[in-house]
Amino acid sequence: MQIFQYILFGFLIVCAVSVSFSKSLLNSILIYMSYSLIMSIIWILLESPDLAITEAAVGAGVTSVLFFATLKKIHAMGEEDENDE
After folding, report:
1. Are 58 and 40 in contact (CB under 8 A)?
2. What pLDDT is attached to residue 48?
3. Which has fewest Cβ within 10 Å: 3, 29, 36, 56?
4. What is the rounded distance in angstroms from the CA atom of residue 5 to the CA atom of residue 51?
5. CA pair distance 42, 21, nearest whole angstrom
6. Which positions ≥6 away from 38 have C-beta within 8 Å?
7. Taking a C-beta distance cutoff of 8 angstroms, is the pair 5, 45 a contact?
8. Whether the model pTM is above 0.70
9. What is the pLDDT of residues 43-80, one digit of tens each?
């Protein structure tokens, strides 16, 4: 079980660093969602289910939906698709 926790901590560090180097806002949001989901799994392993549920609901759920709505509102999602072509 200890090895699994170390692997999750490694993924957590990779997510944190890759958000800093991501050039796409959409990719940054997706990496942030995965960071929150990994963090909620870690909270479960640390036997704190209340924090795990809160992290999954707020971190990966509500905050990500708000980020997606903001990108849609400022028309950043469509511009990234056009810039890729």
Report:
1. no
2. 93
3. 3
4. 17
5. 24
6. 8, 11, 12, 15
7. yes
8. yes
9. 999 999 999 999 999 988 899 899 989 988 887 666 65
Q: Render pLDDT for 22-46 as a digit per residue (tens, 0 to 9).
A: 998 889 999 999 999 999 999 999 9
Q: Residue 38: what residue type? A: I
**Cα–Cα dist 15/19, whole Å:** 6
Indicate the residue type of 11. F
For 37, the enclosing helix (H) or strand (E) is helix 25-45
Find where tokens 């549920």 sit.
53
Q: What is the CA radius of gyration of the chain?
A: 15
Q: Amino acid identity of 84? A: D
